[in-house]
Structures are given as structure tokens and as C-alpha cells.
């Protein structure tokens, strides 16, 4: 088991890190892209995972030179996702870390999803009521890659940010962890890769 005894708090990203929910989001994005005349590129969207949906919509609108309200697209994407009624599974390597440290240190989730979406997903996988904190894009002024999401999670847990470690699956999320002065583990195809905060 990964030795995290140097840390006083653990923060997991949700989609693609703790919960295998990326597929449901991509299915919803594919529907919405067709409706709004945007090119659907799953790799492009996944690379931005962790950003709020309206932020991803802004990037796609700029890329495709299409004029729509990004928040309207984000709402349409959320409604499409709800209609899909996706039931994801937990991701085993990170969930084993969760289980090992549960009750030993406070554990939070910091996600770019809106609160209703995050609460539904985390409740479905049986994690919501076991968290010390949940911070979503609904709770912050600046989403990832800004560090506010993770900083707010640390404050809510009552842990000094530098004593927290983050688990993330995208560069956007790693950048957010480092912006919050936190070490990070990249959750990738080869397993967990340590990405220390700059200067650490």
C-alpha cells in the first residue's frame, strides 16, 4: 500500500480518478456537441477534465469559432447526463487507497462537476457519506486548473494545504494541486505516479 503517512489529509478528484464515470460524461458531451454544432473530440474533452463544464464549453466554442452561451451548453450537458442514468464503478487502485486511510486521516473529493452531479455519483458508489469534505465547481469562484477547489477542501477538512496530497488523472488537475501547494499522484495507465509540488 502507498505510504501517505507524511500527509494529514487526502483529496481525490472524482471523474476518472476515484470513480469510473468519464464514459457517461463523454456520451453526454457527444449528444450536446451535435446539438450545438460543435466538433466532438473525446481526447480534447478528457484533457480538460476537471474544469467545470462551462469552461470546457468555452474552449470548444473558441476552437470551433461557434457563438453560443457556454453556460447554456453546460446545462444541456448536465441534462443529457441525467437522462443517461449512468451508474459508474469505483476505480480499484485509488479506492484501495481510500479504504486503507479511511478513518485515519480526513478524506475529501475536489471535483469540477457541479454539486448535484457530484452528490449523485458519489452516493451511487457509496462514498458520499464517508467524506470529510466535498468541494465542487458550484462551490468555488475559480475552477481547476486554479487551486481554489483543493485549497477549499483542505480548509473544510481543517488541514493545512501543504499537508494534503491530491490524486488526479489529468494535467489540469495536477496543475490545480500544485497551485494549491499540494503534492499529487497522477492516476495513469501505468499506475500511480508521484508529482511533487514545485520546490518540494
Automatic annotation (TrEMBL):
It comes from the Bacteria. GO terms for molecular function: sugar-phosphatase activity. Gene3D superfamilies: HAD superfamily/HAD-like, Putative phosphatase, domain 2. Keywords: Hydrolase. The keyword Oxidoreductase does not apply. The keyword Hydrolase applies. Pfam families: Hydrolase. PANTHER family: FRUCTOSE-1-PHOSPHATE PHOSPHATASE (PTHR43481), GLYCEROL-1-PHOSPHATE PHOSPHOHYDROLASE 1-RELATED (PTHR43481:SF4). This is HAD-IA family hydrolase.
Amino acid at each position: 500500500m502507498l505510504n501517505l503517512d507524511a500527509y494529514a489529509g487526502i483529496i481525490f478528484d472524482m471523474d476518472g480518478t476515484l470513480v469510473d464515470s468519464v464514459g457517461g460524461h463523454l456520451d453526454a458531451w457527444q449528444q450536446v456537441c451535435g446539438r450545438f454544432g460543435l466538433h466532438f473530440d473525446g481526447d480534447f474533452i478528457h484533457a480538460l477534465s476537471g474544469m467545470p463544464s462551462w469552461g470546457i464549453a468555452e474552449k470548444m466554442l473558441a476552437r470551433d469559432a461557434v457563438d453560443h452561451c457556454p453556460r447554456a451548453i453546460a446545462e444541456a450537458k448536465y441534462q443529457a447526463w441525467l437522462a443517461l442514468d449512468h451508474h459508474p464503478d469505483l476505480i480499484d487502485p485509488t479506492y484501495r487507497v481510500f479504504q486503507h486511510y479511511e478513518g485515519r486521516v480526513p478524506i475529501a473529493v475536489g471535483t469540477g462537476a457541479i454539486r448535484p452531479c457530484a452528490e449523485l455519483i458519489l452516493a451511487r458508489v457509496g462514498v458520499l457519506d464517508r467524506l470529510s469534505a466535498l468541494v465542487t465547481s458550484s462551490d468555488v469562484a475559480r475552477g481547476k486548473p486554479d487551486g481554489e477547489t483543493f485549497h477549499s477542501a483542505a480548509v473544510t477538512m481543517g488541514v493545512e494545504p501543504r499537508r494534503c496530497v491530491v490524486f488526479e488523472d489529468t494535467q489540469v488537475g495536477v496543475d490545480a494541486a500544485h497551485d494549491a501547494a499540494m503534492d499529487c499522484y497522477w492516476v495513469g495507465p501505468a499506475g500511480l505516479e508521484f508529482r511533487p509540488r514545485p520546490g518540494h
